[in-house]
Specification:
By secondary structure, the chain is of the alpha+beta class. It is 30% helix and 31% strand. It is built from seven helices and eleven strands. The chain has an eight-stranded mixed sheet with strand order 4-11-5-10-9-8-7-6, with helices on both faces. The chain has a three-stranded antiparallel sheet with strand order 1-2-3, with helices on one face. A hairpin with a 2-residue loop joins strand 1 and strand 2.
Length: 254
């Protein structure tokens, strides 16, 4: 059996770094359900270069859980899938890309002011909820998602005068560091806080034997793209977007 390409290795690492609360495997897709928190954790994702989708079966599973049916359409799969979804009235949104760099090309620097934790604390979760402006329900779901991580991870925090000013975590899978939940307090942006926290995670991953680093980001998020370009994540491996079921579809929870 052929070895997975770098693109599919990165995709696998990113799925494992942001797990779903529930999953169903269906004809080369993994359907992910996480109470509506983020599209990535509440969408159907291809596991290989698929060329078809069982639309009715997918819709039935999402509707069973009271969620809109969303497909994450990778540029790595057959374009016919996207065409069929468009014909069925599914609208496109969230154009994003996967970035990659060999670990030796990343600006990994240990930083004494960045705290790295093996497990997230209540304080780390509280700071993340505040910076992401999560409701109490969203914060609880976020904690449950992160709690399902089965791969090694480090949880980073950079503190300022009034608490955490930047947060992120990195998860390791099959030699790849995947960045997740990178966020900076708006009052501290353009002061290098984001760069410091992702650089500290790169240094940690390098010490843990990582050979590459990756992440997924919205394609048109210029500040984020500039940050990641600055630490060496310059190579765009593939793109994806979402297809959401028509707005007039009635979703009822069973």
């Amino acid at each position: 059996m052929a070895e997975p390409t770098l693109e599919w290795r990165v995709e696998e690492a990113c799925l494992n770094a942001w797990p779903a609360l529930r999953e169903v495997l269906l004809d080369g897709w993994v359907l992910r359900f996480s109470e509506g928190l983020t599209r990535r954790a509440n969408s159907a994702n291809p596991l290989r270069p698929v060329s078809r989708v069982n639309l009715r079966a997918c819709e039935g599973l999402f509707r069973r859980l009271g969620l809109p049916t969303i497909f994450r359409v990778l540029s790595l799969i057959d374009p016919l899938v996207d065409e069929r979804l468009a014909e069925a009235g599914y609208t496109g949104e969230g154009e994003s890309c996967a970035l990659y760099a060999p670990i030796e090309d990343t600006a990994g620097v240990r930083d004494p002011d960045v705290t790295l934790l093996e497990q997230p604390t209540a304080e780390w979760f509280g700071a993340m909820a505040a910076l992401q402006n999560h409701s109490s329900e969203q914060a609880a779901t976020y904690r449950r998602i992160v709690g399902r991580l089965a791969i090694p991870a480090a949880f980073a925090a950079l503190s300022g005068g009034e608490g955490a000013v930047a947060l992120a975590y990195g998860a390791l899978h099959n030699g790849l560091l995947c960045y997740e939940s990178v966020i900076t307090d708006s009052r501290w942006r353009r002061q290098g806080s984001g760069r410091r926290i992702v650089s500290a995670l790169a240094a940690w991953a390098r010490d843990e034997g990582a050979v590459g680093a990756c992440l997924e980001v919205e394609a048109h998020n210029a500040p984020a793209r500039a940050l990641y370009d600055g630490i060496g994540l310059k190579r765009e491996l593939y793109r994806y977007h979402y297809r959401r079921e028509p707005a007039n579809t009635v979703v009822t929870k069973m």
